[in-house]
Amino acid sequence: WNTRHCGSRVDTHFLFAVCMRGEGPHKRQRNVHTDRFTGVAFVLAAAALWGASGPLTKILRIHGFDITDVLAWRYLIGFLSLIVLSASLSKSPSFRIGAARFRSVLLMALCIFGVNAAFTWSNFFTTVANAIALSFTAPLFAAVLGWVFLGEKVGFSHRVAIGLGVFGVSLVAFSAHAGSGSPTGLSPNIPLGNSLALLSGFLFGWYVVIARRFAQQQNDAMAGTIWQFLILAVLLLPFGALTLGKGIALAGYAYLLLYGTLCTAAPILMLNISSRFLSAHEVSVLALSEVPFSILIGMILVGEFPTVASWAGVALILTAGFLGSVEHE
Q1: How far from 288 is each of 135, 138, 183, 205, CA to CA, in Å?
Q2: CA nearest 161: which of 294, 280, 282, 40?
Q3: Which of 11, 116, 259, 283 is deepest in the core (most CB within 10 A)?
Q4: pLDDT at 18 over 70
Q5: pLDDT band for position 78 (cuts 50, 70, 90)
Q6: Rounded to whole angstroms, how far apart are CA atoms 186 and 184?
Q7: CB 114 within 8 A of CB 71
Q8: Predicted confidence (pLDDT) per residue in 183-238, tens digit
């Protein structure tokens, strides 16, 4: 795709070439539903990839990585993968960014670092179900912050979706298996892990609001995402060097590569693109679908099986996701 095919400056890296179409207002109006479907699809794809991050964190821990190793390498690997993707979609990676946009990107980088750090660390102490469930109190925060800072209205169906979603994650988090079980080797300090997961939810609510504001003002989601990863990769590079002296097997680094590309860079890019088409609270509600994905992957990879109450919570979350995908007037 080339900018000459569109009537204005566009994001040439938009994965499915939805390049903000240089079209008149009437034709643009006819594409509203298509754009909304695109946004929903990106959020659900991001949720599916994020769903593997909890189980993979536990696998990385088994291979000898600690929280510092995971955080330091995930952004460097993610940055390099985004450069490769950007180069494959255009002649050169997208590095052009102004001072005003850099300030916004810096804030987004620090916010997503807080989300990832709190969530990753929570998986070192609590169960996969807990970490996912409590981190997805985000729709509550996103709805309030979006209303205050962006003037976004929350329709009735979306208010119901938020309520069902939060109740669903509560069932998952506070079922007998997830909330009050005894510590295990993989989940040694459940209260601490739960607190970190809740902090992750709060920060994620902030992130989707900031990403929505950025998407409203800018066209280039790829450039913004690359700069987020570049900032964090540079800041954490010294810690990544320490990992090399730990004698971790190559298999562990293979899992780390998957974690940095598929569970970090890809979903964040998809989330930033979806913010063009969906409000902040819509993005956060749809992202609740990560919960069933994570539980299913956790069952397969680390053998953590939730209770009946947890599956009831999953059903509510899926219902919330459906209501959140419905456009309100």
Answers
A1: 9, 9, 26, 12
A2: 282
A3: 283
A4: no
A5: very high
A6: 5
A7: no
A8: 677 677 777 887 888 888 889 888 888 888 888 777 678 888 999 999 999 999 88
